[in-house]
Structure formats: C-alpha cells, structure tokens
Amino acid sequence: MIRLTDIRKSFGKDDVLRGISLEVNKGEVVAIIGPSGSGKTTLLRCINFLERPDAGEIRISDLYVNCSKASKKEIHALRRKTAMVFQQYNLFRHKTALENVMEGLVVVRKMPKDAARERGVRLLEKVGLGDKLDAYPSRLSGGQQQRVGIARALAMEPEVILFDEPTSALDPELVGEVLAVIRQIAEEGITMIIVTHELGFAQDVASRVVFMAGGAIVEEGPPAELFARPQEERTKQFLRRLAPEYSI
Amino acid sequence: MKLDPSFIGEALLKLLEALPTTLAITAVSVGCGFLAGTAIALVRVYRVPVLHRLAAAWVTVIRGTPMLVHLLVIYAGLTLIVDTLTGRLGLGWNSARIPMIGFAYLSFSVTASAYCSEIIRSGLLAVDKGQREAAQSLGMTAMQTLRRIIFPQALAASVPNLTNFVIGMLHGSTLAFVVSVVDINAKAEIVASTNWKFFEAYLAAAILFWAMTILLERAGGAIERRINRYHKGGVA
Q: Which PROSITE patterns match (chain B) (predicted)?
C-alpha cells in the first residue's frame, strides 16, 4: 500500500504541489489526469525523489519517509520499491534492449547475470519484443522503446510502477501497442500510478481516477463515476474541453 | 643549394631513434591529462563545493597561457622549489638529479589536463538528463550511474575531440627541445645542422609526424565506429 500525506513542492515562488494526499491500495491502478501544469508529473516524480518534495510523508508498505529530512539511504530504499516508465522512454542508449532490462537487476539487485538474462528475455517476450533482444534503442520504434521501458520497470518487481505520460511522445499509430501492454500488466494485479492524457484508456484500465488542477487534487473516484458525473466545476470544464463525448 | 632526396630517407632512419621519446612524452601527457581532466570535468559538472571553483580557475589559467610557458615556468619554478627544500632539509641532492624529460612529462600533463577537462565536460553535458533519471529510478547509486551510464556515453560523445586532442599533444611534444629533451624534432635539428641539410631533415620530421597522425586518425575513426554503433543504429 502507498500513502502520500500532504506532499508539498514549490519551484521558487511557484507552488506546484499544495499538499497532496493520496492512498493507493495494493493491486490498484490509479490514473492521474488534469490540465498541463497541474502538477501531476511532479507528484509522480516526488514519489521516487526524482523531484525532492519540500514537505510531506511517503509510505510504501513498511517504508516510511519524512520528505523534508529524507536521507540518501531512505531515498534509495524508496527507489528500490518503485519503478518508473518515462514519457521519453529514457532507455540506456548504449545498451541493447536486453541489457537495459538486465541493468538494474545486475547492478542494483546484484542478481547473477544468467538469472537476470533469463528474466530479461522472459519479460521482453511478454511485451512482444522477443525478437529484439539485441537491438539498440536507436533501432527501435518509439512504441518498441516504451515496451522495453515497461519490461525494465517490471523486471525490478517493484511495489508500484509509476507511469509518466507513457504514450505522450508516441506517434498516434504506436499508442495502441503500448496501452495494450499496460492493460495486460494491470490485469495481473500490479500496482500502478499512471499520469495520462488518454482519458479513454484511463476509463478502461484504472480502478480510480484522480483529477488534479493547480497543484491540488480536485476530485477522485471510479472512472465511470468521475467521467459521467463530475462534481466539481473545474473537472467538468476539463472534461468538456478534452473529451466532449463525456460532457453532460 | 639542391634538394637531396636520398638524404630524406637517411634522416628518417636517424629520427626513428627519437621516436620512443616523442611517443613517451605524448603518452604520459595524454594519460595523465586524461585522468586529471576527467576529475576536473566531474568536479565542475557535479558542482562539488569549493573544488569546482578551483577547477574552473585552473582551466582558465592553464588554457590562458601557452604550453611553452608552462614548460618554462615549471622548469624554472620546480628546480627552485626542489633546491630550496632539499637544501633546507639537507637531503644531499638537488634538482639536477631530476631527468629533463620529467619536466616535459609534468608540464605537458598540466597543459593536457585543462584541455582534456573541457572535452570530457562537453561530453558529460551531452548526455541526456533522462539517462541519469532512469538510472536513479532503478535505484542505482550516484557512482553506479556515473560509471555505468553517464561516463560511457560521455566518452563516446567525446571521441572525435579526444582524437584531435591526442594529435595536438603529439605535435606539442616538440616543445620538449627547450629543456634539452631530444624528441623527433630536436633530433631533426641535430641531423640538419651536422649534415647541413636542413630542408631534408625537417621534411623527414614532417613525414614522420604526419604518418603518426594518420595512424591516430585511423585509430580514432575505428573507436568511433565501434563505440557509436548504438548512435547510428545497428544490432550487436
């Protein structure tokens, strides 16, 4: 279980996160939506300290971190319990698809190479890239790169996978293959927090949708409910603009 | 006065005696310069408190002064310091015991450190910050991230500039004659004046340097192709 309590973050005078509290249960898939600049990506990056929160608390199962005085060791522990899939994929450019998936296992988890390779091959096959094991990222399409990114995250067997707009950088015709993979792993009960602009996908896959605006959570609920009967004016506006088919 | 083509070959053979000296000076200055330059670049890119200011100052001072001046200052300064120290401590030896080539090694390494640090620094800056974030998100330590992810990519991006740098140090090593080290160029000088065939001797030196440069270019190109397989695409 993940519990974020009163997470705050500002960049200079700009309060990007104004006290976010969020609970995600094991096996839950939470989609975070909202206009750009609402702080969704920052929130996600605060969970693994790619962005250091100014204040707040993060709890992931038995690990508890007080953000304002988190030690290196605690940050490291948080990162071992989480994995991230990036908007720009961020595959290691000098490593093949398989090496990308093995890297964290061998270097961080100290797993023997053979075992890491075995798991790497299995996961790449799972995301449909069994024939691309030895390809460098520059030889892969965006969709393929992102699927390697997902395999790399899965390999670490984290408590939660953080998806940062995983399809935003993709050509439209490649979005489907990535969403299909995410949907598939969602069904396996892996806990996920997904920042996304794909409302249809959020409705489809998420067990809960969180709408953020102006650095705060405006409302949250099961997708069917939130999309069909948004309570807050801010949510209604957003849905009207982004997805006229939901508007009431 | 007439050109004596056959003497060029003769001179070349004589210059080869000085080849190891030139290679040694180049190798030492490039090697030490690379290590020191890498340290300087890392200190600057990661903004290590206090040290990064010192590193920046070092680079502007060293790059702001000619290689020949480094050699002369170190030659004069080091002998003074060593002689004062050994005299005071009564060690019973003096700077005359330092081999002349030692001054060349030291001063050219100093020169190389500043230039090389800028090459490595630009390589480090060329690595996308997403690479570091991906490594961090996997739980890698700063050291693991640097060693396994950032540095290999920075080095790969630096290969063309590094080749250029090695060639520059090779050619710069000719300044060693100032402290009486007989490198290829100094040898050419000797061969020229003892035979009164200046043009031939200098031409032989030029040919030798060019040949070495071609080898370096080739080596650099080969490393670039190997290392950049992943840049241009391709399968292992």
A: ABC_TM1, PROKAR_LIPOPROTEIN
Q: Are A72 and B140 in contact (CB under 8 A)?
A: no
Query: Are A93 and B131 in contact (CB < 8 Å)?
Result: yes
Given the DSSP bridges, would you call strands A216-221 and A160-164 parallel, antiparallel or unpaired?
A: unpaired
- The structure tokens listed for A62 are 């038995």
Structure tokens at B222: 């080969």
Which amino acid is located at A177 in the chain? E
| pLDDT tens digit sequence for A172-228 | 889 999 999 999 999 998 999 999 988 888 998 999 999 999 999 999 999 999 998
Site from B136, B138, B146 to mutate, A interface, most A CB atoms within 10 angstroms = B138
Contacts with B173 (C-beta within 8 Å, 6 or more apart), sequence order: B22, B25, B26, B29, B104, B108, B183
Closest CA to A21 of A39, A8, A4: A4
Half-sphere exposure of B39 (CA within 13 A, CB side): 12
Alpha-carbon distance of A178 to B235, in angstroms, equals: 23
DSSP state of A10: E
Q: How far is CA B177 from CA A155, B185, B188, B213, in A?
A: 60, 8, 11, 20
Q: How far is CA A205 from CA A17, A113, A185, B194, in A?
A: 26, 34, 10, 88
- R_g over Cα of chain A: 18
User: In this predicted model, what pLDDT tens digit does every residue of B140-179 receive, in sequence order?
Assistant: 999 999 999 999 999 999 999 999 999 999 999 999 999 9
Query: Read out DSSP for B75-135?
Result: HHHHHHHHHHHHHHHT-S--GGGS-HHHHHHHHHHHHHHHHHHHHHHHHHHHS-HHHHHHH
Q: How many CB atoms lie within 10 A of CB A125?
A: 13
> Does residue B233 register a pLDDT over 80?
no
Residue of chain B nearest A79, judged by CA positions: B139
- Decide: residue B199, CB within 10 A, 0-12 exposed, 13-18 middle, 19+ buried: middle
**Strands laid side by side in the A29-33 sheet:** A82-85, A160-164, A192-195, A29-33, A208-213, A216-221
- Name the closest residue on chain A to residue B130, using Cα atoms: A90
Task: For residue A83, give the 3-state DSSP assignment.
Answer: strand
Q: Does B205 touch chain A (CB under 8 A)?
A: no
All domains in chain B, ordered by first residue = 5-230 (1.10.3720.10)
Amino acid at A231: Q
A83/B128 CB distance under 8 A: no
**Residue whose structure tokens are 């702001």:** B64
Nearest CB partner across the interface for A86, out of B134, B229, B233: B134
Place of tokens 């001072």: B61
- What is the ipTM, given to two decimal places? 0.92
